[in-house]
Amino acid sequence: MIADKLQQIGAATIGNVRGYGRAGIMLFGALLGKPDIRKGFPLLVKQLYVIGVLSLLIILVSGLFIGMVLALQGYTVLVKFGAEQMLGPLVALSLLRELGPVVTALLFAGRAGSAITAEIGLMKATEQLSGMEMMAVDPLRRIIAPRFWAGVISMPLLAVIFTAVGILGGHLVGVDWLGVDGGGYWSAMQANVDLYQDVMNGVIKSMVFALIVIWIALHKGYDAVPTSEGISQATTQTVVTASLAVLAFDFILTALMFGG
Amino acid sequence: MYIAFYSFRGTTALAAAESINVSDILIDIQQLTFSRGDRVIYRDLNMQFARGKVTAIMGPSGIGKTTLLRLIGGQLKPDSGHIMFGNEDIPLLSRNALYAARQRMSMLFQSGALFTDMTVFDNVAFPIREHTRLPESLIRLIVLMKLEAVGLRGARDLMPAELSGGMARRAALARAIALDPELILYDEPFAGQDPISMGVIVRLIRSLNNALNLTSVVVSHDVTEVMSIADYVYVVAEQTVIGHGTPEQLRAHPSPLVQQFLKGEADGAVPFHFKAAPYEQELMELVG
Amino acid sequence: MTTRKIEILVGGFIVLAIAAFLLLSLQVASSGVAGTGQSYRLHAKFENIGGLKVRSPVKVGGVVVGRVAAIELDTTYYRPVVTLEINKSYSNFPETSTLAILTSGLLGEQYLGLQPGFLDETVEILADGDYIEDTKSALVLEELIGQFLFNRGN
């Protein structure tokens, strides 16, 4: 009994480490070697469109609503202390430090990450990756690398857009609807938000999240069992693993950035 | 010109009948052993594919015929043995040398493996665009030529999803010959085709082989089609070659296994039943 | 979808992101008093800094002129030393200026109130690295209550 359990733990650990190893080798193979700008750039632009532009709508709408809800909730609490002029900093700091990077990463994992996993998994299942390899074109460089860079570039941009739209949404509810002083909204925000401490740390967070989400999505797709249920499993795993990893890393990064 | 009589390892009785010039061998597989996990797929496999000929590899499903093509393409590494492609030993090549060697071969996958996000035209143009810096006008010319060869010039603007299975395979064939390779590996080119497209593909393999002076390796279990186009046939089963020769020689092959395969008998040397414990014994286990 | 259209949309996406970033850095974050070279440093010793924190504002008559850059403990006298970073454009405070730890509102944050002092021939202007001698420490509620009770007892 105990031996069986031990064996299970051992097997799971070995499986995990192997997974990390394969993911590492995949990324290494994709990023190694000199990039060919002439061929690479159009591919990158195409992926920026698929990964970035197509995620824009969900980011804009979610950002707006989260900003509005934050303002509404914040106002009802702050007004009890007569501190409604602090609504600006509340909305801005929550979005900049936490909600912007984290919610963008979660939405990104659901919207773009799952799509990437499914796409690459299907390419594998229909032998497109194999076929490419036999045409002497390395799928790691042709397929994985542009998606990786497009993800790493897109997500911080999406997070910044999310945050900005959220703050405007907060303004919409707080100032235009609930009647907080407009000048106070911005000036209190400016007095409490620091460009480096808050804005830049938020951007750094979303860069780290981008790396995690896109890497997991690519690896799960590339490593998927090339059957229908294999791909559906890989897609689910991408969303679950990426979301959990984002939340875990968010805690670590927050502790490092704001904890000390 | 020096002509050497090549004696095949293994079944010498037949080898004496067939003579092949050594320098005319494009691919020489020597003592190949490959296993997946604990399961041995090939043990000490020897095969030669002559330049400019259509060589077929036949055998029952599930014995790893596709695996053999992947081994030749360098996508899998054997446990031991050599796969000589010209003067190069595929398993020992560095990454760059392997990619250079792959530019001289192509593979037609069972599914066609067309890129689903590109039109037929772009699919055929893909290897040309990747490996050359030809101007777009010249690429267009080449692509139209290749599509004409497979009879799909009119379908160039369709997406792969809009093609029938047979058309997709022909489009993939046009892509496979886009860079005028020396060698084409066909993976089950006849599987799942209606008789008409089967006939088209049989004709294409033969005519492309002659017109472009290609070397073709066809992996298949469709006996009639293979026997009609192949210059030389290997029958693979039980981890190794069980018989080889020209189609005529094979029909007269003494091995019961080869005969069973060629005639398509349900039971015989290759048992109908997958390896299992005796039936009665397992039934009794349930009762007891 | 043509390549041109994709490129235009991607371009639009990047421009939108840059605009959002500019909004965040100019409209949302405090612009100024952070960069090196545009500010100079002053020090001040207090008895007690209360709830003062790094990055708390330094105000003159309610206008922010700088921020607290560091808070350390002087190990000889065990008194807190606060380092202020003051904007270069406010560079002529006399050395008779006083510094007090104040609180904005009942529950608000604590900040440093700088009260510029008088100026005559014997008084010099505070320069980078100087100490502000005249400081008033934070009011600690417990001490206030204690004092109040003590006074009533008399």
From TrEMBL, chain A:
Alphabetized InterPro entries for the sequence: ABC_MlaE_roteobac, MlaE_Permease, Permease_MalE
Q: Which UniProt keywords apply?
A: Cell inner membrane, Cell membrane, Membrane, Transmembrane, Transmembrane helix, Transport
Q: How does it sit in the membrane?
A: Multi-pass membrane protein
> Its principal location?
membrane
UniProt key word Transmembrane helix: yes
**Which Gene Ontology terms of cellular component type are present?**
ATP-binding cassette (ABC) transporter complex
What is the similarity comment for this entry?
Belongs to the MlaE permease family.
- Keyword Transmembrane helix on entry: yes
Q: How does it assemble?
A: The complex is composed of two ATP-binding proteins (MlaF), two transmembrane proteins (MlaE), two cytoplasmic solute-binding proteins (MlaB) and six periplasmic solute-binding proteins (MlaD).
Q: Spell out where the chain crosses the membrane.
A: 48-72, 144-168, 199-218, 239-258
Protein name per the record: Intermembrane phospholipid transport system permease protein MlaE
Q: Where in the cell is it found?
A: Cell inner membrane
Please describe what this protein does: Part of the ABC transporter complex MlaFEDB, which is involved in a phospholipid transport pathway that maintains lipid asymmetry in the outer membrane by retrograde trafficking of phospholipids from the outer membrane to the inner membrane. Probably responsible for the translocation of the substrate across the membrane.
GO molecular function terms here?
phospholipid transporter activity
UniProtKB/TrEMBL annotation, chain C:
Give the Pfam families listed for this entry. MlaD (PF02470)
Span of domain Mce/MlaD: 39-117
Question: Which Gene Ontology terms cover its molecular function?
Answer: phospholipid binding; phospholipid transporter activity
NCBIfam families linked to this entry: OM_asym_MlaD (TIGR04430)
This chain's protein is named: Outer membrane lipid asymmetry maintenance protein MlaD
| Organism for this UniProt entry | Rheinheimera lutimaris
